[in-house]
Amino acid sequence: MIRPLAKLLTAAMVLVLVAGSARLEAAEFEPPTRAESAAAMRRAAEFYRGQVARHGGYVYFYTVDLQRRFGEGEATADQIWVQPPGTPTVGMAYLEAHQATSDPFYLEAATDTAEALLYGQLESGGWTDSIDFNPQGERVARYRNGKGRGRNYSTLDDDKSQAAIRFLMRADRAHGFNHERIREAVKVALDALLAAQFQNGAFPQGWDGPVERNKPLLQASIPEYDWRTEGRINNYWDMYTLNDGLAGTVAKTLIEAHRIYDDPRYRQALARLGDFLILAQLPDQQPGWAQQYNYEMQPIWARKFEPAAVVGSESQDAIATLLLIHKETGDAKYLEPVPRAIDYLRRSLLPDGRLARYYELKTNRPLYMQRRGDVYTLTYDDSQLPGHYSWKGASRLDSLQARYEAAKQGHSSAAESRDQEELARRARAVVDRLDAQGRWISTFESERLVGDQRFRPGDKYISSAEFADNLELLAEYVKSLE
After folding, report:
1. Tens digits of per-residue pLDDT, 85-108?
2. Residues 112, 56: contact at Cβ < 8 Å?
3. pTM of the prediction?
4. What is the DSSP annotation of 78-96?
């Protein structure tokens, strides 16, 4: 919540370090007016909608001349990306701007974006990572509109279908539930999502139709066979999956669906997801979670560099999701797995305070991979890690512990807040960075690979993530001045 100031400041005192001593110095600071901020929002959105969009949709990155476009790889002029920070991310920013200003331009822009997603909705009800508007394009899939061909695999990996659904639900609400095509697409997507949930509450990585529900209800266990060489499953994507924060993004989607449509099915599906997370917690020696499980509830391999193991990142996501589900349902059973999971992860921290991506089953030793060509080899050595994957991640255990303690005491943890001066400073910086054409141009600070294009330090680019973040920040600031 924003703490209003009595009046906007024209100057602020900043701390400056000089030769080891500190002194206070006045730094000129002129907060942007509401009109100035709204004008910057409109200029940026007009550029993004008018110059950057293709078929109403977006990708991740653009060269400054807009001649090259990148999602997970280089995109043609007829391809847009569903996976965040692509099309749904930009669309949600337009809706935030509309809510802040009531300017119909933003709802029109968001509707363009929704129409792009409607084009690429699969017959199976969800979305894949991208949409190809060229019927002969290499990324085309089997779309509900009959204009596609090929795969019909809706995916929950990397928040793809979930982000599309959340945006379209918000667009449906912004239209007063009167946009027939958006409303229909949301219904198809949510029905497909519910049909993809297993009886035990789990979700697969994706689906091309309803899942088989007659699977046994089992508690997670560690396999007794040699997991290094046995138990690899070709169709791991059909199994119970937590990879890449799937539980958290699905939970947020179900919560938002229930709030918008007040349909008890979404609250029930949320509770079943929490029940699965309880079942999926591994035995007490390693009471974390795995990336994916077979139908016997044992950790399994996925890709050749993703072994059967306890995982740091998804375990933290499972804890956060249980806390979220407890907040929504009020059922204390979703808190029960949390303390021993946090204690286990604290014991598993690396010397630098991070968590390994993988911990070996039974021994709990951090597991890594070495790569030679297309061959990956398990190792305990972290000195020569392949650069295409995140092998270590930040610990969020302090934050999760605080949320747990607050939930246990029956109240919410303190929400993060930005006071008005901090918000005004950030808004000022964002307004000042916008160029005359309505662009926020960024500079790569370190070598980075996007598809086959290597951006080097100093290269300029335009980012959908930055556009969306900045537009939402200015929308927040404009609302705070009401």
Report:
1. 999 999 999 999 999 999 999 999
2. yes
3. 0.92
4. TEEE-STTSHHHHHHHHHH
